[in-house]
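Box 3.1 A note on notation
Throughout this textbook, protein chains are presented in two layers. The first layer is the amino acid sequence; the second is a token string describing backbone geometry. Keep the layers aligned when reading.
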Amino acid sequence: MSRMNLRTAVGTLMALGLGNWSMFAAAPRLTSKKGFGLPERKGRLGAAQLEALNVGWYYNWGAESELKTQVPFVPMIFSLKGLKHKLSGDYVLGFNEPDNSKQSDLAVKDALANWSIVAAKGKQVGGPAMAGNPVTGEWLPAFMKARPKVDFATVHWYKGVDAKHFIKDLEHIHATYNKPIWVTEFAPQTAGSSEKDPNKFTQAEVDRFITEVVRWMDATQWVQRYAWHDSIEGTSALFDAKGEMTATGRTYAAVGQRMK
């Protein structure tokens, strides 16, 4: 192509609104399994906090992100309302806690009836993440029995600081469904804790838990990704109310292998 024709072609692309060359580029290479569930709606957390954690990816429970960052974003179809979003990336996360009346709150039959729409929004789709037990509970076994397209299982884990318990639970889930796993929410949480009454684990207990489970997840091939979510504050919080990194945040930022 001559220089003149090339210049004309570029001008045409710009006029059509296609001048953003990133649309033709390959997806950013994953630099780490480690990620972060970042609630952008809170306002105190943004790109600076995300990048300080040295993560390889993030999500925000939504289909879009307004953050200006080089960290790859993974969209989620949180509930049936999210089906309207037009997505076509490498990954999409499915319904969030459909077994929880305070989250997507979906009957299995309704989730299955709309699942093909969710699955079409990404080359790989993560199954619905449970609030309850994904193996012994009723919701996920019934959903998976229908054999929907699920490329990887998503797991939420808030059971304390026992790394062996964490590992055993993930091994059980993997053995049950024979799917790779993304741990999309995990953090220590004492029974009955809340934002007003945060968990009571010591800093040493939380630091040890993070170090042990992250080392194991990095070494376990079928655990493809993991993301911290500090819904309960206290020693689970990676950042304080002002957006400053906590001791737990520094521990999480320091762990996690870089992928070659």
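The longest strand covers residues 181-186. Confidence is low (pLDDT under 50) at residues 1-26.
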